[in-house]
């Protein structure tokens, strides 16, 4: 009853602020983790050494001619980015070595190197594309660019959304066979390989295309992010500044709130001092009481956080998966900030004279 009275009279504002901070940190951590997971999933074919390029004089070379040069290379991966089917975005890919793909699959499988030794058009689709499937003779197809691509796998999660739901991957050789001139589709390409020297692979590819087809390649910057938010997060300077500003704002608020909260306990502190209580014991009692309020606020914020993520309609903003890491990070932040920042006003309050404290001044 005594604690409930203190909580109601002096700690309610502290509770509200800690609850808000906890919810903000949880949703923020969840959003960041979702963005990084989505980017990693969509860019699994792109390593840190991948090279982006454009094909110059692309009117001089057909899709089949490009594939002839590509297939002559060992341990190579080529990706045609930014291809579209209705509202869906995809990639046309080719690779001739084993790749350790960690793509979440609901049914079927992802493409493998053996698929590129055959002429059959194949596609892997996100689960939101299932309505576009055409069934023929018991097999599923997607009609892309007047070519029937056999569906070999459906990507995504059965119980939550992901960036892969609206994407697709098709065989690059099947895609390029429709184009007599690359100029029609020439935009961004990516080359990668099992070798650690992608620069040498790119130079060799550039040389062969120039010798055989009189075309050259020009490098482009590789864009590995999938949104303006994730692009900002990948900027280390932006991330550091954001973290510093956030910590300062949170710290200043908690210092002000905690000081007022502890100042209201001056009379109680004076009584405890007069009865022989040491500054250390009094400070520990105040910190523990503060931490209890913070812990209750944290637990309630996690219930709201879980409800928003699992049952809310903002999965495109915060993601649709509850991450254990978000809860742990929030708890650590709340405990550390509450402890460190509360030491400042507590130290000032404990310096007051006993007689002044007894009078509540």
TrEMBL record:
Sequence ranges assigned to domain MacB-like periplasmic core in this UniProt record: 96-179
Protein name (record): ABC transporter permease
Keywords from UniProt, A to Z, are: Cell membrane, Membrane, Transmembrane, Transmembrane helix
Where would I find the ABC3 transporter permease C-terminal domain in this sequence?
A: 241-353
Name the Pfam families for this protein.
FtsX, MacB_PCD
The answer to whether the entry has keyword Flavoprotein is: no
Query: What organism does the UniProt record list as the source?
Result: Clostridium zeae
Compartments in which it is found:
Cell membrane
- Family, as annotated: Belongs to the ABC-4 integral membrane protein family.
- Record keywords: Transmembrane helix included? yes
**Membrane topology qualifier:** Multi-pass membrane protein
- Residue ranges crossing the lipid bilayer per the database entry: 12-29, 238-259, 280-303, 323-344
């Amino acid at each position: 009853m005594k604690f409930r009275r203190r909580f109601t009279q002096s700690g309610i504002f502290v509770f509200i602020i800690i609850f808000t901070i906890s919810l903000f940190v949880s949703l923020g951590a969840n959003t960041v983790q979702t963005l990084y997971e989505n980017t990693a999933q969509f860019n699994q074919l792109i390593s840190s050494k991948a090279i982006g390029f454009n094909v110059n004089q692309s009117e001089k070379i057909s899709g089949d001619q490009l594939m002839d040069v590509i297939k002559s290379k060992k341990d190579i991966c080529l990706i045609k980015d930014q291809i579209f089917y209705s509202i869906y975005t995809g990639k046309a890919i080719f690779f001739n070595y084993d790749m350790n793909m960690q793509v979440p699959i609901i049914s079927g499988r992802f493409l493998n190197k053996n698929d590129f030794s055959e002429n059959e058009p194949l596609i892997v689709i996100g689960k939101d594309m299932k309505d576009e499937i055409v069934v023929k003779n018991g097999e599923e197809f997607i009609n892309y660019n007047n070519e029937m691509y056999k569906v070999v796998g459906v990507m995504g999660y059965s119980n939550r959304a992901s960036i892969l739901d609206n994407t697709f991957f098709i065989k690059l050789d099947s895609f390029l066979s429709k184009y007599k001139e690359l100029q029609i589709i020439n935009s961004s390409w990516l080359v990668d390989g099992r070798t650690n020297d992608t620069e040498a692979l790119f130079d060799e590819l550039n040389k062969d295309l120039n010798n055989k087809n009189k075309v050259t390649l020009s490098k482009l910057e590789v864009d590995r992010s999938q949104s303006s938010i994730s692009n900002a997060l990948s900027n280390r300077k932006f991330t550091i500044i954001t973290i510093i500003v956030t910590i300062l704002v949170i710290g200043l608020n908690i210092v002000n709130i905690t000081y007022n909260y502890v100042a209201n306990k001056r009379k109680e502190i004076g009584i405890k001092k007069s009865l022989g209580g040491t500054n250390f014991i009094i400070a520990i009692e105040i910190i523990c009481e503060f931490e209890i309020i913070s812990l209750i606020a944290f637990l309630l914020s996690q219930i709201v956080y879980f409800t928003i993520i699992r049952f809310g309609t903002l999965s495109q903003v915060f993601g649709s998966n509850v991450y254990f890491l978000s809860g742990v990070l929030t708890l650590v932040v709340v405990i550390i900030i509450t402890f460190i920042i509360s030491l400042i006003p507590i130290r000032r309050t404990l310096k007051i004279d006993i007689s002044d404290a007894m009078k509540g001044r």
